[in-house]
Design goal:
Helices cover 2% and strands 51% of the residues. It has 311 residues and is mainly beta. It has a domain of 217 residues: TolB, C-terminal domain (Neuraminidase), CATH 2.120.10.
Length: 311
Amino acid sequence: MKFDSAETDGVKVLFQANATLAEGPLWDNRLELLYWLDIRRRRVSRFDPRKGCQTGVWILPNRPGCIALTSDPDKLVVAAGADILILNLLDGTTSTRATLPIDAPTFRANDGCVDAQARLWVGTMIDDINAPEQFSGGRLFRVDPDGHIEMVDCEFELPNGIGWSRDGAIMYINDTTARMTYCFDFDAHNGALSNQRVFYDHSHGAGFPDGLSVDADGCIWSAQWDGWNIRKILPDGHLVKEFPMPVRRPSSATFFGPDMDQIVITSATVDFTTADFLASPDAGSLFSMPAGSNGVVENQFSLSADSGVKP
């Protein structure tokens, strides 16, 4: 596919990260800083839009699948390998809050997100790209602030981006290789899911749904791996628009900026051929574009075991 620069919708390179598998962009509105992952290199990186440069890199013991804010702005919660870690950004140390009941290193944590009740939700996937069963056996776990873990669902191929409707009554999750965005009725008090159904079927367009974000209007923004695009989908499940991207593998998208009216998109070069690099020379970069809508502030994982959250 050739990218048409005349249809950029304002897409530009925000930072040439040269990442192998950039994922999980995370905006901290408290400090106006942007974090993201390079999964294959086991890195958490930080970018300051005001300075226009990277201001920190942290190397983790295992491949990270997702990061999220915590109630302490100097700490992130990270799902890496099978472990749920608390990363201290001041000294780079990690402590283990919980360990997922998965067969590591065959499986690892993948994408995840924190709900309004301060619990971390994280999917898992097979980490061996050569395994014949790679796209199978995906599971979804809920991690409570006290470290209690509950397997909530095991009917996914490759669970990915997670988000909630604006009223918190519906949970969305991308299943990448199934090419579906599913939704569930969400019991916020008990952290339970029910009534799984297809929210959007991506098999009629280009790419595989990867990371997602939900804006202030309740629209879902899905990065399309191998699709050269980002999709915006209304809360009723109708596609609004496909935004062309200058890279084959946009991997995730989230809102950032003082007014959270910009979108940052991560991208990947994993398993690229020479032809792939020639077709998208900026692959592995972070991109940005005007959203035409606003994002919502990220929820924070509680570092207090006595947070009042019900398991």
